[in-house]
Amino acid sequence: MKLVVLSLLGMLGGCVPSRSAVFHPVDREIERRLGLDATWGDERVPAAIDRLLKAPLDRDAAVRIALAKNRRLQVQYDQLGVAASEVAAATVLAPLEVELQYKVALEGDGNELEIEAVQDILDLLQLPQRRGAARADLEAARARAVAATIELVANVERSYVDVVAMQQELELRQTAFEAASASADITERMHAAGNVPDLGLARERDRREQTRIEVARAQLDVEQAREAMNEVLGLSGKDTMWSVTNRLPEIPHAAPALDTIERDAVAASLTLAAIRFEGEAAAGRLGIARVRSVIPELGVGVAASRTDGEWEAGPAVSIGLPLFNQQQGPRARANAELRRSRNEASATATELRAQARATRQRVLAAHAEARHLRDVVMPLRQRIVEETLKHYNAMNASTFELLAARRDLVEGGRQYIDAVRRFWRASAEVRALIRGAMPRGAADVSAPTSSGTSRSEGH
Q1: Whether residue 376 has pLDDT greater than 80
Q2: What is the pTM of this model?
Q3: Could you give the angle at which helices 198-233 and 59-69 cross, rounded to 10 degrees?
Q4: pLDDT of 164-201, one tens digit each?
Q5: What are the DSSP calls for 84-111, one per residue?
Q6: H/E stretch holding 151
Q7: Which is it for strands 111-120 and 97-104: parallel, antiparallel or unpaired?
Q8: Sorting pLDDT into bands at 50, 70 and 90, what band is 435?
Q9: Are 386 and 138 in contact (CB under 8 A)?
Q10: Distances (CA, A) of 393 to 50, 344, 390
Q11: How far apart are CA 201 and CA 199, in angstroms?
Q12: Do 329 and 289 contact (CB within 8 A), yes or no?
């Protein structure tokens, strides 16, 4: 009997769930959805990160670094601790109220002692509701933490693709600049010999300077992409001196099958799951507030009194009357939270479906564009370069025509890199959606600044 009482007191006293109890379900869900072993606070992590940063980063290495270093993600996980503390607070009973009165007769030597101990029994009866609401909030925090992890992985993948693509484009821009510089040098020599008019020389110089500007823009794009990746990786200082692989992977031969992405994204959505849990918590708090609006307090206990040495004892009951406070505030808040959760669930589902459809369109469009550039446009432009070279060797084409053909080939390569970049970015968003997250800032329908300059060049 004593053991049962002590166990009951321990349960009612409340305790904060252990760190493993709070985080283990999250780790397990991350492993299920991402295939990653999320180990938090492992003392071996810093050394592992140092090893990863010394070698050229691939996508998986970048993801592991971000999971360990990104502080915004850690903020989301800290919210789990807040929600866990609310679970502990919900299992703690209101304090036992003890009232003590001692009265002395103003005339004579009589005295009276009254002792009353009352516990709010309504607080005990509502403990399951409070605990259920707090646990629903904890589950919502867990769902949002897993969603934040998946979203971070998508952001890392997109940033990684941008860095590699920007580096490839910079190489092409430098090649174009070298070709434009060679063309301008030849034109200057021919102009000096009187074979090219001033207008032709000015055009070639303008073309060279334009490509110089495009190289500078491409260099800026590389730096901007690196800083964006530093941000999602959580790196600063000497840790920002990392490098990446030199080429984006080729697109798959067949376009991915995404016919069910809309349904899959809604079914897997952790945001919708979190909203449902928050709605459950609001419903629980509304039920508590409704009862308290009728009976604010129901105390049960024992009372004892002593008058002139004689003791009397008996049960004590106290009932609060809701004369001034009918829990208007808590009831209104819980009702508003319920309405918000319903509207938010509907809005989120609509946004999720729209984003799934738009992402599918971007994946398929980028895949089709990249395939067309690779299989049709680039071979054509390579053929044009080869044929122009033959005509040049036969003295039927000018140096400028050959350089123009090579510039078109370089521009086709830039367009192909951009299409591949957009395909892999959108593919990362697809993975995030079917894993349960809704990546923010997902749309990327245009190429970066430096690649946006396209001119039809003629001579």
Answers
A1: yes
A2: 0.83
A3: 50
A4: 999 999 999 998 899 889 889 988 998 999 888 999 89
A5: HHHHHHHTPPPPPEEEEEEEE-SSSS-E
A6: helix 127-192
A7: antiparallel
A8: very high
A9: no
A10: 54, 69, 5
A11: 5
A12: no
